[in-house]
Amino acid sequence: MKWLSWRRLRALCWKETLQIFRDPSSILIAFFMPLLMLFIFGYGINLDFSRMRIGLRVEDSGAEAVAFAAALTGSPWLEVRSYDSRAALERALVDSQIRGFVVIPQDFSRKIQQQDSTAPIQVVADGSEPNIAQFVKSTVTGVWRTWRQQRAEDRGEKPHREIMLEPRVWFNSSAESRNFIIPGSITVIMTVIGALLSSLVVAREWERGTMEALLASPVTRTELLLCKILPYYGLGMVSLLLCVAVAHWGLKVPFRGTFTALWLVGSLFLLSVLGIGLAISTGMRNQFNAAQAALNAAFLPAVMLSGFIYEISSMPVFLRGVTHVIPARYFVTSMQTIFQVGSAWKLLLPDILLLCSTAVLFIGLTAKLTRRRME
Amino acid sequence: MKSIGRIRALVRKEFQSLLSTKSGRLLLVMPVILQTALFPFAATLEVSNASLAVFNEDRGRASVEMMQRFVASGAFTRVLPVWGPEQMEDAIGTRGALLAVHIPADFSRKLATGESSPVQVILDGRRSNSSQIASGYLQSVLDDYLKDRAEASGRVLPSEVIVRNWFVPNLEYTHFILPSLVAIITTIGALIVTALSVAREREQGTFEQLLVSPLSPEMIMIGKAVPAVAVGFFQATLILFATVFIYGVSFQGNLALLYGGMFFYSLALVGVGLFISSISKTQQQAFLGAFVFMVPAILLSGYTAPVENMPPWLQHLTWINPVRHFVEVVKGVFLKDASLGRVFALVWPLMVISTVTLSFAALMFRRKSA
Q1: Using CA atoms, how far apart are residues B276 and A235, in angstroms rounded to an integer?
Q2: Do A23 and B284 count as a contact with CB atoms less than 8 A apart?
Q3: Is CB count within 10 Å lower at the N or C end of chain B?
Q4: Chain B neighbors of A53, CB-CB under 8 A
């Protein structure tokens, strides 16, 4: 028996394509979901703090205290609310109405004038939100530093001996988090299409008993595998193009790469995740279990361990090891390179080779599982 | 009384279909264990093990002392000495270093004469969030250094800022993640169980049998809701145990308040799940429908990025997101010992959400059975 007949393959692919288009849920996942996700990552996942709400209690009526309070209120990074007691501040912090508060104590103006005493400014931040707490701290100290400098100048004093850090950002000069999050989020979208959608298809055939019918026909293993891969590959690529188009023209993320690089990297990644999805589906034979397994084996790692939000180098050693078998990891870095740097083949090549090997690994695994099932 | 017996029988059947197979049982426990074991380490925005490139043109003692303090801070495990602007560019470009510090030749001299002495810090914009956090670490190390220098020279600073962090004084990231995980993992479990249970019966044709049985649509809904709520409570309790006893995060608040909030949260999830279930024909549709709801709901819950950073219209829109309210409940009760009033302020939106979704689902069920 010939291992591949074009006529049979065409017929099988056609059947699979019809099945995709007749089910509104696959259209939902392939076209609506990408738009929704890009929208969420474009607007909802913003790691750049803009205005933080903090509380303020000025217990001192002296000119210095009033001047510092004015400096705080004037900061574009803070939305300052005044409270009339410490108890009210504390309650507001527990209730998350404010993310931190500043207390200027009673003798602030007196102490700052005296040579031998230091006037304290008390800052309390909400430690249950570590990043927000850091931001509150650095913003309030920043305001204080500028105010102190200004005050020394106004009084004609020599400014303090100071070391000034001058931050400068390279590559993504406005340092907008969306410019690296959106290319990374395309990874998540592609994983959903590749692994989640495909994890259901073979399991469904087993559950409904149509797999037995297929197996009884002269269909070969290669044909069976290809007819499940090709239509979903096509669907995934269309969706990838849609994502890149919306990211570039809709969300204004700069795109510096070429179509060839995008196609190559996208295909290899898509084949890897299709491999994962089909392997799960073939192994589980049950849609409920396959769906759960795909969620945990493909989707969550793509969000958590791919390095697009959470830095891989900050993870402990064993987790860094795990990230090496996750294709999403290589796709995230190459998408970020394609979007922000361009088609720098020298940077892309290692990722391309690794994506090749994950694709071979997972599709090979599916092939192996399929054979076992057929015997 | 008769109806209670019928519901009980249905609930038992639902539990059986959930727990009868080994893979089914495994899938209720394994993901929870895996996620609780991995995510606190993975999902961290903390910066550690980062590398710092240093281009030091200064020969003075002050620059050496400052660098030593940067290294001792613990955020940077590797220091990459570079000797020129090209090497510095290379270190950032190839991702060899997250930050680069450039100390000019006249650094110590300027500092000694009392002029202000600039130090350049280069951030990798492709990893803008991490590099900004790391440069924040540098700034606070520097602040401490300046304060110590002032004290050593016997000068009294006119003013100072004293920062304290409440609830989690050391800002440990795991304390923030684990309570949020309670909310997120419960969401996945409870929602998928409800969304798929009706769809599976419909696909296998047993749903029609249920409808012709003496069970009313409301009783079927209760029968489907009880196992989902139980799965949610079970998984949440598992993570709670791990959080307190394995990760050692101390539980500050009132356990009853937490479980009370969890009850209404599970109801809201069941409502959403049954609603999705009632409009889908197959398991695939139900699962993907649940997924399309779940992912935005989790991402916009304030877990990945704070709700405050969203544009105002989106902040208002997140009111209809049950995950957002429950993440706040768990974090509030767990870390801040939130009061009954505070918990109620977060729970009543959940009550509204569950009432709306449950009545919608009931409507759809009745139409199906009519």
Answers
A1: 24
A2: yes
A3: N
A4: 308
